[in-house]
Amino acid sequence: MLPIAFYYGAGELDRLSRFGKVVLQADFYTEGELSVLKARGVQTLGYLSLSEDVGPPAPWQRPERNPDWGGAFVHVGDPRWIAHVVAQARRAMARGFGGLFLDTLNLEQTYPEDLPHLLTLIAAVKEEAGPDYLLANRGFGLLPELADLVDGILFESFSARWVNTDGYARWPDDVLEVHASVAERLLGLDVDLYALDYADSDELADFARRRAGEYGMLCFVSDRVLSRI
Predict the structure, then answer these.
(1) Which pLDDT tens digit goes with each residue over 44-72?
(2) Is pTM, for the whole model, over 0.90?
(3) Domain containing 183 — which CATH number?
(4) Between 34 and which of 28, 70, 96, 115 could a Cys-Cys bridge form, CB atoms 3.0 to 4.6 Å apart?
């Protein structure tokens, strides 16, 4: 089996069955579909956002929104937000997911005061939802404590990125060097390491996979909206 896939569409059970782990939108799959994937040896991870809310207006939301995806930033330490996220995690696990994919962990440049609250939230999700596997997306401002709470860390856009809705490119050399230094730090942690890169050509995809392998990461390459398997 291939190691991991990130797919934010629906269905495609046969194609997803080629992977050991698949990250999926939690509401896009039924209990029956998740059972099929589990029977085929696939560990399903349900998407969970920890610092952005795409739902209706709520008291834990900040006025600011993510300019790329439109979700409202939140006060991570608000007890009502914590209860909301934990409830989402419990529902995903009850539906049959094998674990959770923790997204929107990069608060060090926007709301660094919320980093301790974010660690508390991750610990609450782990304890109260009981996932078999937790995969964190980046969250480098939470290191090294994060590595004690999760099983794996994903370096999204490690080597290549989308630059607009139509184009993809490798990072400039100075950014690649910064990413490499972070990757070397990750190698010293006792967690599984993955990379997710974005590309629209075989050449760029091969560059991303090769470079990820040099830093001990298993790499998956897709498009901006994760519609390719």
Answers:
(1) 999 999 999 998 999 999 999 887 776 89
(2) yes
(3) 3.20.20.70
(4) 96
